Amino acid sequence: MDIFAMFFAGLGLFFIGLRSFASSFKSSNSRLFHSLVKLAGKRRELTVLIGTFAGAITQSGVAVAFMIISLGAAGAINVRRAVPLIGWANVGTTGLVLLAAFDIYLMIYLMLGIVGVGYYLKLYDNERFRFPLGALLGLALLLLGLATLKSGASHLNEVAWVNEMLSTSPPSLVLLFAAAVLFGTIAQSSATAAAISVTLILAGLFNMDQALVVLFGANLGSAICVYLLGRGMTGVGMQLVLMQVWSKALSVMVLLPVLIFELNSDYPGLETLAAMLTEDAGLQLTLVSLIIQLVGALMLSYLGDSLMDIAENVAPEGRAETMGRPKYLFDQALDDPESAMDLLGREQARLVAYLPHYLDSLRSEAQPGGLPVPQLHSASLSLAGHCRRFISELTVRTRSAPSLERIAGMQSRNETLVHMLEGCQQLYASLDHPFGEPMAQRMRNSIIEGLHALLLTLEDSLNDPEDDCEILLLMSSDRSGLMEQFRSDLLDSEASLSMESRRALFTATTLFERLVWQIHNFAQVLVRSDRQLVLGSGSDQASLESTI
Q1: Residue 198 belongs to what domain range?
Q2: What residue intervals traverse the membrane (predicted)?
Q3: Do the domain assignments include residue 343?
Q4: Which of 309, 498, 520, 539 has an alpha carbon 20 to 30 Å from 38's alpha carbon atom?
Q5: At what angle do helices 499-547 and 480-492 cross, to 10 degrees?
Q6: Rounded Cα gap, residues 289 and 283, in angstroms
Q7: Do 300 and 360 belong together in one domain?
């Protein structure tokens, strides 16, 4: 009974340490991870290094995959460039399998001693030392669990009935494979199953054939786990989920037939290759685990674009996702600031065109088939975020003073647009109310139609700033008197309007007034930007004439 308790305790310590180590690192350094992932998305030569590092630190390819999925769905990274990261993160998780193959007691004792001294000196209370101590404690518990697991497993074959069962009726490889698939699905990690397999093979409870079958089953289970966790996603999120699933599943589909052929014939295969490289059974299993992950990583590196084409057909983007992605912005445009600003202006024009649609479902002339406002708002903010990041990159690369002044104007426009998007969303929420009173309905319709006309004029002003901006400035000059009259009517209508209607309309008048002021400011920014553009082109022409 003591032996089984030791084995079970080792398993518990291993899982506690694994979760503690990964959680402490991710919670303290999520910004670092995001920065590294974005860097790898821009520079392909760093993909192998950053992906492997991320997998080694988190010891979970699933965790890294979903981090990349969240960044891809938010549009923060170039999705196709980030695809190989998913595969190389799986390669990094084999570090855990490698540790399981060695005697690591001395390292565990040193780590626990360091953590203990740190706690005694109250260093954990210091923000500076909290992360390293937490990560070191998690890693120490993880390794202690592996060592305890290995120690308990080494004594299991001393139990008479266990020894007799293993010698007389070894477990079926098919059943082992099925059990490993189930374990990999539940544990959310193939590296966990591989590390446990190393301890069991070193203890003599598994032979190499059985351990390899468990390895392949756990990889397939990990793929199933990712699919189950991401099955509710759509568009880019689901496409990246499929990349992780295919990375795991395709490596199993390619290499499992090789293992089956080797086990049923005299021809060499994976087991023979590992035996040629090392005599240590634990290292042999580690090498095969590394080969499986390398095959998946290389597939995503060299076939990633083709697989993404298939994924885009299987899980196409929805309408909201398409609206939230830039049509005109691309990294190469940053090398030419003037052209880049023109492209940025076209994206901002798309944002302005989205504004009237916030009111479409509230109007009496509403057309069916419009995008629901929550989805429209999410898409609009996503596109505005793309524009903001593009402006930041453009500012860093630009040296010309006139260009920097124009970029500042574009940035001001972008921030004003974000405030207008938020205002329209709030106005929709306040007016999406069943106003039963005729007076309330008239006031509601006046606000909606008045703002809708202003937003349409704003959209036109981007196409013809010279004439329409003047009209827009005139239309949005001052509506405070009108709103005061609205509020006065609301105060006088206590008997004819319910409290809910008056509260909603009071909120709407405040939001309307703020939106009109923002539209007026946006029109002024447009006028200034147009003048800067004219002056800039005039100075360029004068410079060219003087040169000639």
Answers
A1: 2-157+170-317
A2: 46-74, 95-121, 133-152, 173-206, 212-229, 241-261, 281-303
A3: no
A4: 309
A5: 170
A6: 10
A7: no
Please list, in sequence order, all residues whose beta carbon lies within 8 angstroms of the beta carbon of residue 544, skipping any fewer than 6 positions away: none
Residue 451 resides in a domain: yes
Token pair of 496 as six digits: 């004819």
Looking at the structure of the chain, the number of domains it has is 2
Residue 330 lies in a domain: no
Instruction: Report the C-alpha gap between 36 and 72 in whole angstroms.
Output: 14
AA letter at 426: Q
Q: Is 244 in the same domain as 357?
A: no
Measuring CA to CA, which residue among 474, 473, 456 is closest to residue 522?
A: 473
Q: What CATH number has the domain bearing residue 458?
A: 1.20.58
417-445 pLDDT per residue, tens: 999 999 999 999 988 877 777 888 888 88
Judge contact between 16 and 141, C-beta under 8 A. yes
Domain assignment present for residue 363? The answer is yes
305, 365: one domain: no
Q: Which two tokens mark 174? A: 């098919």
Q: For residue 480, how far is the Cα from the chain centroid?
A: 44
Sign of the CA dihedral running 537, 543, 546, 548: negative
528 Cβ partners below 8 Å, 6+ apart? 409
Does 169 score more than 60 pLDDT? Answer: no
Measured CA to CA in angstroms, residue 43 lies from 47, 56, 77, 175, 379 at distances of 7, 20, 11, 44, 27
Q: Please classify residue 80 by burial: count the beta carbons closer than 10 Å to its beta carbon, then call 0-12 exposed, 13-18 middle and 19+ buried.
A: middle
Rounded to whole angstroms, the Cα distance separating 163 from 153 reads 12
Mean pLDDT rounded to a whole number for the chain: 79
